User: Which sequence fits this backbone?
């Protein structure tokens, strides 16, 4: 059995809050500018969906360099759908993250981003962290301290790599099944519509 160490998340990562709404002046759905990742842009597959992403102008982004993302960072939702998260890939490097998110930057020599991504999604870990949310406001808000003090079980790097790889493969298979189900549902609806076309197109009583 590999030796597993326990750390607080803040000992393994740099955790940063996103810029305020005032700092993101001019945030809008524009074809030009620097993308800003917000909670709606994170998918259930822990990726970033860029289709409806909002952007800030290059001038505004130049003053927000400390909020830039790197490949291997995690974006973690702190307001709204707490705990939704995504792993930043090469396509999102140098993008920004919004006020409703936290940036988690792992020390890759100690903990792999892919392992941490799935660890934070474990139901017991997720519940422990999100139970500390501030629910007195209209929108639930998670203090960064709730993440900073969260315990993390850290096996050796090779073991982390094995776990992360297995979890990613399972996630890929789940997504393939979801797409297949959606395709079959659409086919079933279309077939029913075709079979009943005379009824739908005919005169009504």
Assistant:
């Amino acid at each position: 059995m590999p030796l597993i160490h326990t750390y607080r998340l803040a000992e393994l990562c740099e955790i940063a809050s996103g810029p305020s709404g005032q700092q993101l002046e001019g945030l809008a759905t524009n074809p030009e500018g620097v993308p800003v990742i917000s909670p709606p842009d994170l998918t259930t597959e822990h990726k970033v969906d860029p289709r409806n992403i909002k952007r800030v102008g290059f001038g505004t982004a130049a003053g927000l360099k400390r909020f830039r993302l790197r490949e291997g960072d995690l974006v973690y939702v702190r307001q709204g759908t707490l705990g939704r998260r995504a792993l930043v890939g090469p396509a999102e490097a140098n993008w920004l993250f919004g006020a409703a998110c936290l940036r988690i930057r792992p020390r890759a020599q100690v903990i792999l981003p892919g392992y941490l991504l799935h660890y934070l999604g474990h139901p017991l870990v997720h519940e422990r962290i999100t139970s500390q949310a501030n629910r007195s406001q209209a929108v639930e808000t998670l203090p960064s301290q709730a993440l900073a003090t969260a315990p993390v079980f850290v096996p050796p790097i090779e073991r982390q790599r094995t776990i992360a790889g297995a979890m990613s493969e399972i996630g890929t298979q789940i997504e393939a099944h979801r797409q297949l189900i959606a395709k079959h549902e659409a086919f079933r609806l279309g077939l029913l519509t075709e079979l009943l076309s005379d009824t739908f197109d005919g005169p009504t009583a």
User: Anything to note?
Assistant: The mean pLDDT is 88. The domain at 5-155 is CATH 3.90.220.20 (Adenine-n6-DNA-methyltransferase TaqI; Chain A, domain 2). The chain has one domain: 5-155. Helices lie at 9-12, 58-62, 113-119, 123-130, 144-148, 157-195, 197-201.
